[in-house]
Amino acid sequence: MNLIDLKKDDKVIILKIHAEKALKDRLNSFGIMKGEELIVKGYSLGKQTVEIKVGSTYIALRANEAQKIEVEKIL
What we know:
By secondary structure, this protein is α+β, with helices and mostly antiparallel strands. Helices cover 17% and strands 41% of the residues.
C-alpha cells in the first residue's frame, strides 16, 4: 500500500521508499525514512498533495512523491 492510498487520520509505518537518491535524501531530511511512523492529516482537492505528520512536524508531499512511499497501517 502506498501513502497516497490512505485516508485522513490513518496511522502507518514506512516500509520502503521507492525513489531515486536525491528524493530519498530530501525525505530523510524531513524525518521520512524506513521504520518511521506517520499520520495522514489531509489531502488537497483532487489528491494533488497530502499533508502528513512525522513526529511533531507537518509536511506536505506531492502525489507523485507519496506514491513512492510504501507503508503499512498500524492500529
